[in-house]
Amino acid sequence: MATTNRAAGAKTTLQKASQAVGAVFLLVGVLGFIPGITSNYEALSFAGHGSGALLLGIFQVSVLHNIVHLLFGVAGILMSRTHGQARSYLLYGGVIYLVLWLYGLITGHDTPVNFVPVNTADNWLHFILGIGMIALAIMLSRNTRTTRTATR
Q1: Within a domain: 152
Q2: 11 and 149 in contact (C-beta within 8 Å)?
Q3: Per residue in 73-117, pLDDT tens?
Q4: How far is Cα 111 from Cα 66, in angstroms, rounded to an integer?
Q5: Structural domain total, the chain
Q6: Strands 10-12 and 146-148, how do they pair?
Q7: CB 72 within 8 A of CB 53
Q8: How many beta carbons lie within 10 A of that of residue 145, not counting itself?
Q9: Does 94 fall in a domain?
């Protein structure tokens, strides 16, 4: 049985993965608010399918969408503190992203139900993220070895 309490500075590969995924979500959330990286920035709305802003010119975003990325990123970083929480973040976060993928497939892109908003590129990214996060949770939870981080 894997222990959930680790020595200070010791992290499992699973915890590092959770921290990295969280950092990427945090970065994406910030980038969604930067004109130039987000094209049509002037069309960024708080929520809804009418937001015309595109992160990297591909992924439809809104203020709400960016805030969700920021919160999801903070959750990943905070939950990387313990092995069990890191596993839960990756596993259940992956499930959430698969549900978002289904939501995006079922709802029309130009309907009021698409409040997040999502487009086709978002849908497939959500699918890849969901599968990837679940795979990380399953594969890395078997490896409970810790590594020491350098301290000064």
Answers
A1: no
A2: yes
A3: 999 999 999 999 999 999 999 999 999 999 888 887 777 776 777
A4: 20
A5: 1
A6: antiparallel
A7: no
A8: 8
A9: yes
Q: What is the DSSP string of 22-88?
A: HHHHHHHHHHTTSBTTEETGGG--SSSTT---EETTTEE--HHHHHHHHHHHHHHHHHTTSHHHHHH
| pLDDT tier, 50 (very low <50, low <70, confident <90, very high otherwise) | low
Q: Which two tokens stand for residue 38?
A: 């987000």
Q: What is the mean pLDDT of residues 7-16?
A: 81
d(CA 80, CA 85): 6
Strand, helix or coil for residue 60: strand
- The domain containing residue 91 runs over which residues? 11-144
Q: Is residue 122 part of a domain?
A: yes
How far is C-alpha 42 from the geometric centre of its chain's CA atoms?
25
**125 part of a folded domain:** yes
State the Cα–Cα distance between residues 65 and 46, nearest whole angstrom. 8
Q: Give me the sheet containing 38-39, strands edge to edge.
A: 38-39, 54-55, 59-60
User: CA 90, CA 112: separation in Å to the nearest integer?
Assistant: 30
